């Protein structure tokens, strides 16, 4: 008999491996979204694909909603606009967040100097 239970382990990234990390812990939503916007803007000038671990504050009982849901909705919108190529929730004992993949920049005048910044 087959085990028909739903395995959600493949939907959540537990490794936390990424090329870079964007730590948004301690920020309010406005500042968190601005940090993501700046990261996306910088990526437009880079030639390589990058993965980024976005760290958010973990949920705390009694403190209301975390940034996980609104940031996640924002990342889905960026995915639809093809500004990011992949997004996967991340969770460990210390924080929650997302692992995203940023596509290589599409600007025509990408210079080698810009790729180092």
CATH architecture: 2-Layer Sandwich
End-to-end separation: 55 Å
Order of helices and strands: EHEHEEH
Largest sheet: 4 strands, mixed
Mean pLDDT: 82
How do the strands line up in the largest sheet?
A: 1-2-4-3
- CA-atom Rg in angstroms: 16 Å
Number of helices: 3
User: CATH topology, which one?
Assistant: Translation Initiation Factor IF3
Roughly how much helix do the residues carry, as a percent range? Answer: 25-40%
Assigned CATH class:
Alpha Beta
Low-confidence stretches: 111-117
| Total count of strands | 4
Beta-strand content: 15-25%
Number of domains: 1
Return the structural class: alpha+beta
Structure description:
The structure is a single chain. The chain has 117 residues and is of the alpha+beta class. It has helices at 29-43, 68-80, 112-116, and strands spanning 20-23, 50-56, 86-91, 96-102. It has a single domain (20-116), classed as Translation Initiation Factor IF3, CATH 3.30.110. It has a four-stranded mixed sheet with strand order 1-2-4-3, covered by helices on one side.
């Amino acid at each position: 008999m087959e085990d028909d239970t739903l395995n959600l382990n493949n939907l959540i990234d537990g490794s936390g491996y990424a090329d870079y990390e964007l730590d948004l812990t301690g920020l309010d939503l406005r500042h968190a979204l601005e940090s993501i916007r700046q990261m996306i803007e910088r990526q437009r000038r880079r030639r390589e694909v990058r993965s980024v671990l976005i760290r958010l504050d973990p949920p705390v009982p009694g403190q209301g909603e975390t940034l996980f849901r609104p940031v996640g909705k924002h990342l889905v919108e960026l995915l639809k606009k093809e500004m990011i190529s992949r997004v996967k929730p991340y969770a460990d004992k210390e924080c929650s967040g997302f692992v995203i993949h940023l596509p290589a920049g599409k600007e025509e005048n990408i210079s080698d100097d810009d790729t180092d910044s």
